[in-house]
Amino acid sequence: MKKLFTKNSLAKLLFINAIAAILSFGFSACSNNEDEDDGDNPLMSGQLNDAPYKNEAVKYYILNNDTDIESIELTASGNYIVLYADDQVSNSGTSFIAKKTGIFHTNTAQINSRSFNQELSRYGDFIKKEDNTYELTNFGSIKIISDNQLEIKINDGETIISEVRKETAITENTLNNRLNHTWKVSSATIQYINADGKIVKTDHFTTPSELQEETVQAVLVTNHGSFYQIEWDNSIADYGLWQWSDTDNQIFKYTWTDEDATEEEGGFVQVTFKDDTATFHESSTEYLDEYGKVTISSTITAKAIN
Description:
By secondary structure, this protein is mainly β. It has four helices and 18 strands. The relative contact order is 0.20.
């Protein structure tokens, strides 16, 4: 599996500068907000319960060469994801279009630059049974024999006893627990900012029909360093890895899970929290014939649904 980004301090600095310019008015206008009177983090206010299945969350990499299953993850949101060994993103030779492949955005550019085989992934709810057994709806079940071994029963009748590698969970803390949810998109705003710092175009999407053209339905973030785009038909649209880049400013970096992916195939996201709502800010640069070189700023508002 591809290692998450190597450190890119210049890209991070450009991202922070772009976000600071966009958000500076909002933060200064909110400086007297009552949520901050007690000295709380201005990037995180209000309360949100931890995801309901936090104690059940686990991820296993399957080491059995007799099955195509690559990994099985149970998430704190109560979902499972099964990924297959051949479930890879392949490049078609067309350059990556960063502004249309953000962490929440429908990858309309994937037709030209990325190809993802949704048939080789499974996603649904899990139910905990007795004896360390979990029923995976519309797939089968798993039984945890030990940290190094699973019994996998598939609905077609196949049973697999496999050696596994258990992924280490991210350290539990307030920030990690807050992010570790399924985030359903409420609205999306895309701004185009020219070299002079002027906003030359703004697109705003709020209705389901508008959002379906621009974003996925939700992004599921797990405490094992994974994230999954959930399409409007509840399938996996794409997936990747994430890690904190700057916890003080609540910035994380992500990359798509692809052996051939370059460092540009991902990005930096700043997330702010208020109660059960999170706002995700992401920016990239692009050259457009109409405006020249522009910074494209994406702001996604999403609610934790579990």
